[in-house]
Amino acid sequence: MSARRKLESAAGVEAPGAGRGARKQMTRERLLDAALTLMSGGNSFPSLSLREVTREAGVVPTAFYRHFHDMDELGLALVEECGLTLRRLLREVRKAGVPTTDIIRHSVAIYLQYVRAHPRHFRTAASERNGGSPAMRQAIRNEVGHFVREMAQDLRLIGYRSDLPTEALEMICSLVINTMLNAASDILDLPADQPQLTRELEENFISQIRLVFLGAEQWRADPDVRHKK
C-alpha cells in the first residue's frame, strides 16, 4: 500500500473510484467490527473509549461522528445489526406453513447456524445483557421485545392459541426467546470437531422449546389476572 493510501485509510478515506455511500458504509462496518474485536479481547462495552475504537478501526476520531452520535449509539447498532437478519430468517420459517414441530426444528437449526457464524455478536450480547452499560442492556431488551412481538404476530396468523389475549401469547413467546438466548453460550462453547455433541445439544434445545409449547397448550389465562393485586 502506498504512503498516500495508508494516510487515506487512516483518515477513513477510500479510493476515488469507490462511491461515497460505499465508503461511508465501509467505515461504519470497520467501527462496528473494531468494537467487537476489542470486546472479544476481554473488554466490556462500558470500558471502551471512542479513541480506542477508532484506533482499532484505523480511522480518525472525527470519522466516528459521521456515523454515530456517541458510543451508546454504536452499541445500539451492534445489537440491531445482529438481530435484524436473525429475525427475518426466523420469520421466514414461521411463515412457511409447516407444522409447529417442524417450525421448532427448523428455527433451532437456523439459530444454531447463525450463532456459530456470528460468535462475537452473541458473546457480546451474553456479557452485556446483565452486566453491561444501561444503554446496551436497554438495547438488548428492545431487541428481545422485537423478537417476542414478531413471534406472537406470526403465531397469531397461523392460528396458534387463538383463544389467548396478546399479552399471554407474548409471555409464551418470551419464554421461548429467552430459552434461545440462554443457549447461545453453550452453542459457542461446543468443540468444532465433536459433531455428536452438537446434535445432542440441538435435540436438547428442541426438547426445551417443545416443553414450553406443551405447557402453553395446557395453560389457560385468567381473564381477571391483570386486575388482581
TrEMBL record:
Stretches assigned to the HTH tetR-type domain: 25-86
GO molecular function, one term: DNA binding
Keyword terms, alphabetized: DNA-binding, Transcription, Transcription regulation
InterPro entries per record: DesT_TetR_C, Homeodomain-like_sf, HTH_TetR, HTH_transcr_repressor_FabR
Annotated segments matching region Disordered: 1-26
DNA-binding region in chain numbering: 49-68
Source organism, top-level taxon: Bacteria
Name this protein carries in UniProt: HTH-type transcriptional repressor FabR
Species this chain originates from: Solimonas terrae
Source lineage: Bacteria, Pseudomonadati, Pseudomonadota, Gammaproteobacteria, Nevskiales
Gene: fabR
